[in-house]
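Hey, quick one: can you model this chain's 3D structure?
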Amino acid sequence: MYTLNSQSHVPIYEQIVTLIRGYCISGVLQPGDKLMSVREMSTHILVNPNTVGKAYKELERLGVIETKLGKGSYVAFVNDNNPNKEALALFKRNLEELVLEANYLRIEEQELQDLIGECYTRLEG
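Sure thing. Here's the predicted structure for all 125 residues.
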């Protein structure tokens, strides 16, 4: 379920964050689902427990997971009325990078909006 690329220039902890966020977004992980413990995850993906701990702390900071002392880490329930400020800031940075890349590829604004609309349609379907 969790596969990482050790040859990537992206740090392992960031790959873990991206992977778990992706599973949450796609519905593979649902609010309230329990994640593996740091030790279990590090054994499963063969990385240092400190790396997994760093990823879990970042996921918690972004509001993706919540840790209950002595019970473990769980996928957080999203509060639709109050988005996490850090997660929103990260989204805006990622969006700016996407728009810059689209500009580099000479994708017009309307075409980019159409592509985004297609993504929403696939998610809803």
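One thing worth noting: The chain has a mean pLDDT of 89.
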